[in-house]
Structures are given as structure tokens and as C-alpha cells.
Design goal:
globular
């Protein structure tokens, strides 16, 4: 993972919230989802998925 600024981190959180909303999961799982995304997706992938 490269150095990220607050905007990049916020995009991971946005995608996590979007994923959790579609999966109808509890908001308590946001941190776990953000960690999963950070481990598996580049910021470019996150941006692409947010723009779908």
C-alpha cells in the first residue's frame, strides 16, 4: 500500500459503506470492510468502483 492522503482514505470508507449498504450489513462492520478493501484494492480500483 502506498502513502495515502485523507481523500484517498475517505474513498475507501465510501466504497466500504456502499458495499455494506448493498449487503445490508451492520455499520459496525465498516472498519473490517475498509481494512479488507485496503488489503485487496489499489486506490485506482476503489475510484473506479465508486464511479460505477
Amino acid at each position: 500500500m502506498t502513502n495515502m492522503d485523507a481523500k484517498d482514505t475517505a474513498q475507501y470508507v465510501d466504497l466500504a459503506m456502499k458495499n455494506l449498504h448493498f449487503m445490508k450489513m451492520q455499520r459496525e462492520n465498516v472498519v473490517s470492510e475498509v481494512q479488507r478493501l485496503m488489503n485487496h484494492l489499489s486506490i485506482e480500483d476503489v475510484k473506479a468502483q465508486l464511479h460505477k
